[in-house]
Structures are given as C-alpha cells and as structure tokens.
C-alpha cells in the first residue's frame, strides 16, 4: 500500500513499509530513503534531465574516474581504523518497491558529483562559490602575509561554514 502526505516543503512516500522523503536540495528535488538517508540517484538524474531539457545517463557518470576515486575516498575516510567491511555507498531498490521509489540509491556525498556532471548550471554555481572563497582567501593573504595561505583558506572555509550555520539557526528559530 502506498500513502503520501504533503507539507509545505517535504513530501513523504511509503512503500513496502518504508518511508521516503522528497526534499529540495539547492533547487533540485531529491528522493531520500529515510532508513539510511541515501539519495535516489536514478530519480535525481531524471529530474535534472527534465528541468534542464537534457538527456544524460546515470551509469556513465558513476563509472568515471572522479566518481570512483571519490567513492574510495569516502569509504577510506569512513573506515578510519576499522579494517572490516567498507561502507556500502550505493545499492538498488527494485521489485518489491513501487515505481516511484525504485532506482539506484547512493550516499549523499556522492550526489554532488552527479549534480556537477549532469547539470552545467549546478557546476557553474559551485565554481562561483569556490571562486568567491578563493578571492576572499587571496584578499586575506594580502592583508596578513604572516599566515600561510593554506591556513587562511581554512579560516575562510570556517567563517563561511560558521556564517551559514548561524543563518540556519536564526531561520529555524523563526519557525
């Protein structure tokens, strides 16, 4: 049985006694499997293709060198000192689920590679953000040449992250 509920920003879908959430991520809808937080990459690519009137395929993006290297990086990072089973970063939901939730699911961190490889608009936004971070780092370095530029970069990232976190807190308190 399938049920759907709607809130102003989220939609919930139930299939096979599991809950899924459709949420917005930087202007794109994405389907999240609530049990593990993984993103339906198949649906993500379909939505981007529709929104941007393109026809790109998920499989071709998942076999790229960058995707494989980043996947290994995440697995190694999550393993830390553990030497057991590496983190499973993608899997498929098929037959026992309704069509709306079927597809390839992947770890949230991997979705940014998919966004950047599928959507030129998303890639352009990421580049603009990184350029502003770089400009700020260089300006900060010119103002204080006693500190290593790598340290100044980390400081800028911390300021950006803290500023956004404070903004999120302020907005959440207004709700």
Automatic annotation (TrEMBL):
UniProt xrefs under InterPro entries: KilA/APSES_HTH (IPR018004), KilA_N (IPR017880)
One Pfam match: KilA-N
Domain KilA-N, first and last residues per copy: 19-133
Official protein name in the record: KilA-N domain-containing protein
Species of origin: Streblomastix strix
